[in-house]
Amino acid sequence: MxxxxxxxxxxxxxxLASAPALAGKIFLSGGAYDDVxxxxxxxxxxKATGRDSSYTPNISSTNNCGSNWATTVCPRIAVITASKxxxxxxxxxFNNDIPASGSSPVKRGYYNLFQTHGFSPKHITxxxxxxGVHASSSTTQGQANIALINQxxxxxxxxxxxxxxxxxxxxxxxxxxxxxxxxxxxWNNGSGNIVIAGDSAGNHALxxxxxxxxxxxxxxxxxxxxxxxxxxxxxxxxxxRDGTSALRYLENGxxxxxxxxxxxxxxxxxxxxxxxxxxxxxxxxxxDLSVAQGFGVDENTGVLVDTSSQTATVYGANRLxxxxxxxxxxxxxxxxxxxxxxxxxxxxxxxxxxxxxxxTSSKSAIGTAYYxxxxxxxxxxxxxxxxxxxLTRVVDQTPTINTGTAPVPVYSSGPTYPSGSPVIRLRFTxxxxxxxxxxxxxxxxxxVKVDIY
Length: 453
Known about the structure:
Shape: globular
CATH architecture of the domain at 22-331: 3-Layer(aba) Sandwich
Strand content: 15-25%
Low-confidence stretches: 1-21
Number of strands: 22
Largest sheet: 10 strands, mixed
Number of helices: 13
Radius of gyration: 22 Å
Distance between the termini: 14 Å
CATH superfamily of the domain at 22-331: Class I glutamine amidotransferase (GATase) domain
Helix content: 10-25%
């Protein structure tokens, strides 16, 4: 499916023209974080606020900071739980831990989570069942929420349903509510004195336009063709062209206006490789939205995007995958095929300049004494961690190419793919542009060529 070049250029210019002023720092969390991930919450998020950088909280305590924002020395964080089903559910998630169950430990509520990491948290009460009042600048409840935004050093938008976040913070037309306008005013004041953070669904909501739903195979199979959904259609954010019980609704995705704090030339995605391989999903979404670079943030990982220095720094436990489409060429076919993507993989401590596209790592460069003597060819490239393994192996093995196969998904119930649906393949090539680094069990991969065919 080939789009008209003039339309693509026009869309790109429109995106740049409508992009918000860039004034500060964004923190992207990939979801499924560990409650005691101090690199993510302390070294990444808390230090980014510029407050209390020398204080080391007691990770076992839920009472590290005072709750009086006029006197606390801790960073003040406003927690937006609008991705939850209702205000009651959001309030419960803020105030209460989830009890241990079986082998699963206690999961801290947001108040306790941020107290353990040296923040002073307060709750933003706006949700899908009360946004007309709680996100308004003309009501007592809305004004109280706006006051918190105006005082906060950081804002954390929690995970859940990203469409609920947008429904809560934007009006029917997609304009800012009073609450979103207050957040944007803090962002646009030029002082860079607020960090806007999103976890999972909250991460997606920070895009200029976000994508949602579906899986890598489905995005490719349906030709990188994602329908747009209005804010008022938030309850069925997906490809509804065949109905909400159809294969396309379940496997393909859709787009919706986001809050627009990320630069217009970047599209973020979450849960990127630990849960399932989302490289195909992100590559197709980049094509559909005419966005140049994609940031795939993995679980238990955070990425600090500093718009003043145009850098992205990785914190936490896992990885950031960067997809660059600048030299890519779309191929004719019945599904989405593309040659010449450049994909990088960064791990904690690595930095990427999204303007110059330079990767910086303190790990040791991999020379020509490669560790592996054979190629790694994945039989299920969109299974968990298979994309990461293919990328890291190709920079540390004698052969210069790995391949991966994406078999047709098979489900035990519900709609299925038609007989004869294609097996999609990916090729990972190390060439003169590619570099690899390794230290302490962690790899950094710089600009491996990836083709989807």
